[in-house]
Specification:
The chain is of the alpha+beta class. Helices cover 32% and strands 22% of the residues. The chain has three domains: 73 residues, no CATH class; 148 residues, D-amino Acid Aminotransferase, Chain A, domain 1 (2-Layer Sandwich); 77 residues. The mean pLDDT is 92.
Length: 358
């Protein structure tokens, strides 16, 4: 009984967090649109039929204001993160499987970005072999253009593009030992992906990735949507919440008309390099989709997964990481889960919530 009370409070607090976040962002928008009575009724009728209750309308109002496109199929962020994801994915194993250090273990033989050094729960592994901290420091004295990042954080937090010469990094003159101590544990050093020229043209300082959201229903893998994430000039990361921009990708691998950045930067029609977004053709998009469909079948505990895929110089897709608690790119996609919204909610809603067992 006491545990249920705690879980109810935790769930209420988490749902409130999303409401506060979105309503604050709504106030920052230049153009704010109000839903009409007919639109409100359409949304509530849709969700009453699906889950048997009304939903808060702040997400519909926010995304309608950002995109100028109204749809009943926007999914309230608190419903998505606190109900749908915990029903789709087994929460108790998310922490382990979601560790970026686990990718090559989970997908042997697949094209995964190469990890040079890993720190997992405080233990070091260099090229897959266990080593001491002293050995790890010694082995990382000279490295050119590699990615240093936390393995358990998201949204591009803590990612550095570093070079090391005689133990000294290009990060404020710190030595590699200092960086290890600052990050403490659960981090990795990866190769910098040399991306396809058509991806680099969008922004050469970041590896611009395709974020694909997939849903597993039995033996069927549904591609809910895909968006391209593009960094800003001089930035190493492409994440939208870290300053990057994103736009939707159609089934032929061409970009949508406009991109969105952050929570209030809208209607971006070209990249910082001057590339017009509308209709820009991405390379090897079909190969990226095929990879995701193949890999998702290897994850039995997660039905909703976000995949970050880069396209290499030779045109082959390479998996950067996957996310077992993926967000929804509702601005770029202009919908919650598009044509699959109703089907996915109907399948997930009767299932137990693996995070908040109220």
């Amino acid at each position: 009984m006491f545990r249920r009370i705690i879980n109810k409070y935790r769930k209420w607090r988490e749902m409130k967090k999303w409401k506060v976040r979105i309503t604050k962002n709504f106030k920052d928008l230049e153009h704010r649109r109000q839903l009409t009575k007919a639109q409100k009724k359409e949304v509530q009728d849709f969700y009453m039929d699906l889950i048997g209750k009304k939903v808060p309308l702040y997400c519909h109002e926010y995304f309608y204001s950002r995109t100028g496109h109204f749809t009943k199929e926007y999914v309230p962020n608190n419903i998505y993160h606190c109900e749908l994801v915990p029903k789709a994915n087994v929460h108790r194993v998310q922490s382990a499987f979601g560790d970026k250090n686990m990718c090559d273990f989970l997908f042997p033989g697949e094209n995964i970005v190469h990890s040079i050094l890993k720190n997992m729960n405080g233990y070091y592994y260099y090229e897959g072999k266990p080593v001491s901290e002293e050995e790890a420091i010694s082995l990382c004295q000279n490295m050119e253009k590699v990615i240093f990042k936390p393995s358990r954080k998201s949204e591009g937090k803590g990612i550095l593009l570093i070079s090391v010469k005689d133990g000294i990094t290009n990060v404020d003159g710190k030595n590699i030992s200092q960086l290890f101590k600052e990050y403490k544990r659960d981090f990795l050093i990866q190769d910098w992906v040399r991306q396809h020229k058509d991806m680099a043209a969008l922004n050469p300082t970041s590896v611009n990735t395709i974020r694909i959201l997939s849903y597993r229903s039995g033996m069927e893998i549904l591609i809910i949507y895909s968006v391209v994430r593009i960094g800003r000039m001089g930035s190493v990361v492409d994440n939208q919440c870290a300053g990057g921009i994103s736009t939707t990708i159609n089934k032929n691998g061409k970009l949508g008309k406009i991109a969105f950045g952050g929570f209030s930067t809208d209607n971006i029609d070209s990249t910082d390099t001057g590339i017009v977004i509308d209709g820009y053709q991405l390379p090897s998009y079909d190969k990226a989709i095929a990879m995701v469909k193949r890999l998702h079948l290897k994850l039995p505990f997660f039905n909703l997964v976000g995949w970050d895929v880069a396209i290499q110089e030779d045109g082959d897709p390479v998996l950067i990481e996957f996310n077992t608690n993926p967000g929804l790119s509702q601005s770029a996609f202009k919908s919650g889960m598009g044509e699959y919204t109703e089907r996915i909610i109907r399948e997930l809603w009767p299932r137990p919530n693996t995070w908040f067992k109220c």
